[in-house]
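[step 3/7] inverse_fold.run input=structure_tokens len=621
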């Protein structure tokens, strides 16, 4: 509940007005039975017509005030919950921007999505129900019991007993329902995760023919949620039945006791109507309150899930206000250093071994630095550390001579352009995607970036050019087109260093070579860091860093590494030479070398045979 109070603070005035209007609605609704009873008694005692009209006018005024208060209160309540829900979603989204990759891994992307959408909706519904059906209950009980005791003490005691019975039933059912609602939220997270996997991995599922397997997995997940929901709904049904039983039992008792009292002259017929109306209204609101209370465990669980995200301390955080280094006016050092790793060691929080160990290198302006290594050698981890998606466990990562932990993340990432391994485009237009690098970039600058990225030809071929639509994730483009658009996006703007994290893997060799040639002429004073697996992509770099099991196995130019670094030489040979296994069997026993096929003498073919046949009735040559 503290979470709700935190977000309601800016709207205390609206909350107060809503509460007053809802109380006015309830009070007016309770006064109406009083005037109705008075009108019946006046009719039974043959009161004057003017007196009856006056009573009816009072009852109509009370009904009008109650109705207007209900409408205004409902509008104010909807405004309040909408504003609180909007603020919660904005806060969750802003917090998600601060979370590190490790934080996202702990929470889960599907869970973050569920908390932002479904959990906030549940909190909004709970707020509406609490203000409309739970807060008025104490006022209704106080007024209804006061008016009932004013009419008859015995009847009022029976009303009190009926209320107590329903409250005890609700308490027992609520104890049983709380764990079910907590389980429902976890199952909802599971449904979101499985659905996301199936939608994003639909091609893999179809390629391996696993549709039935995934269907069974989805059916099991939905079945678990349905079973738990049915249990919760049965509890609601039991609560409704027992509550209506208590209310109807009270009405039977009232009618049973009232007959003799009316005959004895100690009770008026209008008083029976008033007490029954008080009881029905009090028990009805109590039943509504019970339903709200039944859903409160779910809402409280949602509040706790949202609070865990909002109060989570991100693993990667900016320095305290005033402690961050002012990066305005800073640039590469005198020796051209832009990015430097000084004895950097890094280990993931859930790992047993270091992903990187004592890595040292410097990226300078105007130079291309390349990183190559086997799978799992730590290549992409270097890019993550440079962007401060993770913090080094030991050593320092420096940008413009400043430790990246001593500057704000905005300052750091505004100086680095990044092209990730899996190209990702956002829904919108090509121009909107390219302007992620610089929102003020002109169309001329965008076209130049496309030209350097070798993407201008296919973009110009589109009917709308830069204004062509992009589907979510760029699904309407091929892998190579997406990579080239991602590269163009990184080239828009004035970043000091451009990081390509295996960004040429989907390009053919011709496009790869043309792109590298264009980049070399374009970079100027920028530093370039290329992470790749193809030797052809990085062999002309100014310096090549060879990684093996998280350590630097070699550093230098291509020719030098071919002579001094065994790891690099093995990588080059594996990509440029025919494996020797072609001349031996898998178990090592010698076999005959594979001889090339005999050269086949070309067959002379007449020119007429090469001409297409235009009619099935053509004569044979």
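[step 3/7] decode complete -> sequence:
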């Amino acid at each position: 509940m503290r979470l709700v109070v935190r977000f309601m603070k800016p709207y205390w005035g609206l909350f107060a007005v809503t509460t007053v209007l809802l109380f006015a609605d309830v009070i007016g609704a309770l006064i109406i039975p009083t005037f109705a009873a008075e009108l019946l008694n006046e009719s039974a005692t043959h009161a004057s017509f003017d007196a009856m009209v006056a009573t009816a006018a009072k009852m109509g005024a009370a009904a009008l005030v109650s109705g207007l208060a209900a409408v205004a209160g409902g509008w104010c309540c909807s405004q309040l919950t909408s504003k609180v829900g909007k603020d919660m979603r904005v806060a969750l989204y802003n917090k998600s921007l601060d979370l590190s990759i490790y934080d996202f891994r702990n929470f889960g992307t599907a869970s973050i999505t569920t908390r932002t959408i479904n959990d906030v909706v549940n909190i909004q519904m709970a707020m509406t129900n609490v203000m409309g059906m739970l807060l008025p209950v104490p006022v209704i009980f106080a007024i209804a019991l006061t008016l009932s005791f004013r009419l008859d003490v015995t009847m009022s005691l029976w009303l009190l007993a009926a209320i107590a019975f329903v409250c005890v039933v609700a308490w027992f059912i609520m104890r049983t329902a709380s764990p079910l609602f907590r389980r429902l939220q976890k199952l909802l997270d599971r449904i979101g995760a499985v659905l996301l996997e199936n939608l994003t991995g639909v091609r893999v599922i179809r390629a391996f023919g696993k549709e039935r397997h995934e269907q069974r997995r989805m059916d099991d997940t939905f079945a678990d949620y349905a079973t738990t929901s049915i249990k919760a709904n049965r509890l609601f049904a039991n609560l409704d039945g027992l509550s209506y039983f208590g209310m109807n039992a009270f009405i039977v008792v009232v009618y049973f006791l009232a007959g003799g009292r009316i005959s004895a002259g100690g009770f008026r017929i209008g008083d029976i109507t008033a007490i029954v109306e008080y009881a029905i209204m009090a028990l009805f609101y109590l039943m509504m309150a019970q339903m709200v209370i039944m859903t409160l465990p779910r809402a409280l669980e949602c509040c706790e899930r949202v609070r865990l995200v909002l109060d989570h301390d991100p693993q990667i955080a900016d320095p305290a206000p005033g402690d961050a280094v002012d990066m305005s006016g800073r640039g590469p050092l005198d020796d051209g250093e832009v990015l430097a790793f000084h004895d950097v060691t890094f280990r993931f929080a859930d790992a047993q071994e270091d992903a990187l160990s004592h890595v040292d290198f410097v990226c300078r302006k105007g130079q291309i630095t390349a990183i190559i290594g086997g799978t799992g050698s730590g290549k992409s981890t270097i890019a993550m550390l440079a962007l401060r998606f993770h913090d080094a466990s030991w050593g320092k990562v420096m940008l413009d001579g400043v430790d990246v932990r001593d500057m704000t993340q905005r300052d750091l990432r505004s100086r680095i352009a990044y092209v990730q391994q899996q190209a990702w485009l956002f829904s919108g237009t090509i121009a909107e995607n390219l302007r992620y690098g610089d929102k003020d970039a002109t169309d001329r600058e965008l076209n130049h970036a496309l030209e350097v990225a070798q993407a201008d030809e296919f973009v110009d071929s589109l009917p709308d050019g830069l204004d062509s639509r992009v589907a979510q994730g760029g699904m309407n483009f091929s892998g190579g087109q997406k990579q080239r658009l991602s590269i163009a996006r990184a080239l828009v703007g004035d970043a000091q260093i451009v990081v390509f994290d295996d960004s040429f893997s989907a390009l053919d060799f011709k496009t790869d070579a043309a792109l590298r040639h264009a980049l070399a002429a374009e970079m100027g004073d920028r530093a370039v860091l290329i992470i790749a697996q193809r030797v052809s992509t990085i062999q002309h770099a100014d310096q090549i860093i060879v990684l093996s099991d998280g350590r630097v196995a070699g550093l230098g130019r291509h020719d030098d590494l071919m002579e001094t670094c065994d790891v690099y030489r093995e990588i080059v040979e594996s990509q440029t030479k025919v494996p020797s296994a072609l001349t031996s069997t898998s178990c090592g026993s010698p076999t005959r070398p594979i001889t090339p096929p005999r050269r086949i003498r070309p067959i002379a073919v007449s020119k007429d045979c090469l001409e297409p046949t235009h009619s099935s009735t053509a004569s044979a040559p």
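[step 4/7] annotate
The first strand starts at residue 337 and ends at 346.
The longest helix spans residues 211-264.
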